[in-house]
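User: Some background: our group keeps a shared notebook of sequences we're curious about, and every so often someone picks one and asks for a predicted structure to add to the entry. Today it's my turn. The entry only has the sequence so far, pasted here. Could you supply the structure so I can complete it?
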Amino acid sequence: MDALLLGRRTYDIFADYWPAAPEEISFTGLLNGVPKYVASRTVTGPLAWRGSTVIDGSVAEGVASIKERHEEVHVIGSLDLVQSLLRFGLVDRLELWLYPLLLGSGKQVFAGGTVPTALRLIESVTYPNGVVQVAYDTAGTPIYGDMTQPEPTSG
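Assistant: Of course. Here's the predicted structure to add to the notebook entry:
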């Protein structure tokens, strides 16, 4: 990861914790060191977390520009932003961690309005506690199958 892209709410949570997080956490140095870009319609001024910038203009144009400047841009959390990035065709790889837990409520990763997108599995890991980590490359528009059976011919 050489850049981090966050929605405003996730940025607020991260900015409250990571700048003062213990250095023993291996992720601390990475998150504090990379450039951070925030997609927000409400934040306009400077951001407190060192290396953070609000995306100017449209998210689609801003993220496309960020992807031109950085080799590996990660989004953590930020589900509304992920939905927008999928809609704009700006997701190259999708990594999901599936936990063996049904909450019955909460924010959905793939809520109504998700743009149909074909995915190609590139990696999967199952951990002893039942957590499954999967990584997919996006593979364009899905091809829909037909489950109907042809009528038998008499012969």
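Suggested note for the entry: The chain has a mean pLDDT of 90. Strands lie at 3-7, 36-39, 52-54, 73-75, 93-98, 119-126, 132-138.
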